[in-house]
Recover the amino acids of this structure.
């Protein structure tokens, strides 16, 4: 994800002139979003004992829909002001997914509201061909393993999720750009139910929630450049936060992590990898236990010609589960393809293997395939 930001003069300067400025026209409202859906077929699933997986379906339907509302205007002094609201297309506990306002110009962009950490904003996923499937933060994964807590892998580092925060995106200098963000806490509605009290969906909440992170800082640095037909994208990110109300001696005081990516594109090929590491992570079984770590890494490649794109990718994740002294291990391999019917419209397909197991238990091996479509608007 790329952001074009602004210059080096202080934000105060922009504020001094804004009071005397006016827009050539009022804020213009626009609509956007996407609809992505797929039908999956579980070809086989073995829970490690020679028996099929329990309580799983052979045929699975999935969909994911969001609608974006965006208003923006450029003032006579050159300052661009706008706001974005993202609405989930299906009924959800988090019906308004993200909402923020922004101010941008030659000095960069400042964003305030519910949005992802800086480390996620500048992160690139493991290359994949599909808009519907993938081995890294996929839209859809059909495996339903009973052996592990985690079903998919993600290289995204986003400690504060969509908590209310302030983010600054720099301009791009010779291919380099950076972003920093700060959230006073990981707001209640973004935490797992049952762990949090004093939820305040309109902003920060109280400071005594067992599972909640506070003072979450994140930063990322990217380099994107084209060298005579060879494009390089690489970057690193960092995030750290302190747990509120640590409770027991086993409870960690902080959670922190790093991520990174390296992607090269040339002559229709895109090849690269990405990864993340998190220490003392929080999940829905244990709450920031000291020494409970995770790491995910993977590689992938795609080839594009005309309207067709094909790809092969793999990701590997290891997740400490302190409640049973196990480590969840998830490997995902996928061959994927995409045919672009038109701008923002594609047909997608995937054949893949999901192998999930603990270091003290049997493996759950799922062979799966799926077809789907993506409509962006």
């Amino acid at each position: 994800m790329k952001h074009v930001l602004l210059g080096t003069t202080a934000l105060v300067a922009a504020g001094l002139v804004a009071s005397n400025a006016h827009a050539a026209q009022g804020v213009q409202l626009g609509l956007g979003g996407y609809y992505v859906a797929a039908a999956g077929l579980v070809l086989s699933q073995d829970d490690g004992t020679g028996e099929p997986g329990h309580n799983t379906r052979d045929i699975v339907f999935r969909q994911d829909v969001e609608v974006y509302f965006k208003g923006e205007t450029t003032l006579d002094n050159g300052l661009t002001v706008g706001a974005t609201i993202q609405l989930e297309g299906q009924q959800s506990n988090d019906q308004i997914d993200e909402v923020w306002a922004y101010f941008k110009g030659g000095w960069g962009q400042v964003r305030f509201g519910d949005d992802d950490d800086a480390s996620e904003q500048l992160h690139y996923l493991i290359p994949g061909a599909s808009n519907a499937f993938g081995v890294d933060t996929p839209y859809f994964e059909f495996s339903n393993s009973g052996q592990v807590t985690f079903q998919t892998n993600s290289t995204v580092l986003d400690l504060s999720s969509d908590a209310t925060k302030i983010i600054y995106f720099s301009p791009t200098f010779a291919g380099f750009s950076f972003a920093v963000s700060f959230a006073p806490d990981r707001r209640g509605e973004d935490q797992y139910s049952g762990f949090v009290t004093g939820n305040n969906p309109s902003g920060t909440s109280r400071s005594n929630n067992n599972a909640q992170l506070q003072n979450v800082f994140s930063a990322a640095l990217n380099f994107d450049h084209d060298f005579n037909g060879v494009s390089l994208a690489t970057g690193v990110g960092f995030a750290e936060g302190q747990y509120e109300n640590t409770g027991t001696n086993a409870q960690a005081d902080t959670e922190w992590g790093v991520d990174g990516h390296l992607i090269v594109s040339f002559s229709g090929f895109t090849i690269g990898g990405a990864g993340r590491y998190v220490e003392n992570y929080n999940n829905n079984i244990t709450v920031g236990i000291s020494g409970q770590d995770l790491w995910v890494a993977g590689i992938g490649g795609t080839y594009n010609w005309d309207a067709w794109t094909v790809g092969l990718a793999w990701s590997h994740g290891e997740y400490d589960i302190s409640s049973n002294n196990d480590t969840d291990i998830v490997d995902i391999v996928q061959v994927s393809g995409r045919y672009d019917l038109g701008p923002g419209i594609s047909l997608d397909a995937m054949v893949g293997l999901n192998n999930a197991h603990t270091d003290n238990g049997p493996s759950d091996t799922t062979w799966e395939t799926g077809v789907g479509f993506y409509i962006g608007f």
